[in-house]
Amino acid sequence: MVKKYAYIPKENCVACGCCVKACPRQAVSVIKGMYAQVDMEFCVGCGLCAKACPASIIKQKEVSGIEEKMV
Ligand code: SF4
Ligand code: SF4
Asked: Is 57 near ligand 1, meaning CB less than 6 Å away?
């Protein structure tokens, strides 16, 4: 089974919180006011956070078994 989830490269994140507000699953949190992080357990890969990010840094990843790739 393939699971999609959002991936945030924290070095490019400005911690604006737009992705946190956009996520319908409360899967994103801003850590220590420094960068956003996705909880894979709650993320369903809907992509709403990526659309909301003003810096357009959020990517989607697919995971199937042990394979992981950027999409
Ligand atoms: S892809 Fe959807 S569920 Fe996952 S963190 Fe982004 S908005 Fe939330
Ligand atoms: S919307 Fe983009 S820049 Fe803002 S906190 Fe989320 S990932 Fe970081």
From this structure: no
Give the tens place of pLDDT for each residue, 8-20. 999 999 999 999 9
* DSSP per-residue string spanning 8-64: --GGG-----HHHHH-TT--EEEETTTEEEE-TTT-----HHHHH-TT---EEEEEE
pLDDT one-digit tens code per residue, 19-34: 999 999 999 999 999 9
- How many A from CA of 4 to the centre of ligand 2? 19
- Residue 71: name the closest of 47, 36, 39 by CA: 47
Does the CB atom of residue 6 touch ligand 1 within 6 A? yes
Q: What pTM did the predictor assign? A: 0.89
Beta bridge partners of 8: none
